[in-house]
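Repro:
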Amino acid sequence: MLHARPWSETSLLVDVFTREHGRFRLLAKGARRPKNGQRALLQPFQPLSISWSARRSLGTLTGVETRTHHSRLRALQLASAYYMSELLFKFLHAHDAHESLFEAYEEAIGQLCEQQDAESVLRRFECSLLGEVGYGLQLEHDAASLKPVNANARYYYYPEKGPIEVRESDSQAGLTVSGRTLMALSSKKFDNPQVQKESKQLLRMLLTRQVKGRAFQTRTVYAQILKSLEQGS
């Protein structure tokens, strides 16, 4: 389950992401009643088995069971999970199935519940999302020379082409990343702070470009939580 909000005094509107039917919304009748068994199960980021009827444009939830129970997400991991859900809302059309992305999302939620590094989890999921919706990154070869990426070189990244090595004579401005960062993105392994920083900058640029500059609301919350944690350490 991605999100739920009140629909009436007794019901909820529930947004779900499913393996075979994609993302869509359901009406959970009576789910806000104290004695309704669905109330405790309909929690964000919990893996569920559900059934529903769809005689109208808005389907009705008819059954829900828990598949497994994740531990409670802490502040940074919770903000990360909401950010991933916001990505799904911005990039996926309702009722479009994305089985590989569903598996990537499910794996990422599990990793956050295990308290794995949130930044690395997010970078892997962002890469999976871009690839699934047709904006996969070209990371292994220089788009101009076709030579393999050099870990010690720096590259401009052009969304329509891929990386092109920065030359000493270049006077243009723009985001550059190291070849080491491109290789880390290709393998989805983020093993040092510089790689993590550059990966985040590059993926943020590409994601923002695809949504035509629309703001990600959860990024602000995530940044605030991260800042408070760093100040407290």
